[in-house]
């Protein structure tokens, strides 16, 4: 995958730091990510060829948080994952990376 760093909506920190997500990231991905995402605008849309890791949606403090799919990647040798939220406002060629 090739792409350029892109600006996001500034909400990654809020969502990634929710306990309902962080517990599942630890259990299913093996790490608790930094609270935020790295947004990358891909040069070409890249369908993930591996099996998605499903992160279930949940309720917290009266608010609903949606499901997302994660795909393991390595970014400069660091374990990371591409996160595809069910309720994303981003186009298919913009990915969010957690590590």
Description:
The protein is an alpha+beta fold and 99 residues long. It has 2 helices and 8 strands. It has helices at 12-16, 19-29; strands at residues 3-5, 38-42, 53-55, 58-60, 63-65, 68-75, 78-85, 94-98. The strands form 2 sheets. Strands 1-2-8-7-6-3 form a 6-stranded antiparallel β-sheet, covered by helices on one side. It has a two-stranded antiparallel sheet with strand order 4-5. The longest helix has 11 residues, at 19-29. The relative contact order is 0.26. The model has no long low-confidence stretch (mean pLDDT 91).
SSE layout:
Blueprint: E1 3-5, H1 12-16, H2 19-29, E2 38-42, E3 53-55, E4 58-60, E5 63-65, E6 68-75, E7 78-85, E8 94-98
Antiparallel strand pairs: 1-2, 2-8, 3-6, 4-5, 6-7, 7-8
Keywords:
single chain; 99 residues; alpha+beta; Elongation Factor Tu (Ef-tu), domain 3; six-stranded antiparallel β-sheet; two-stranded antiparallel ribbon; 16% helix; 38% strand
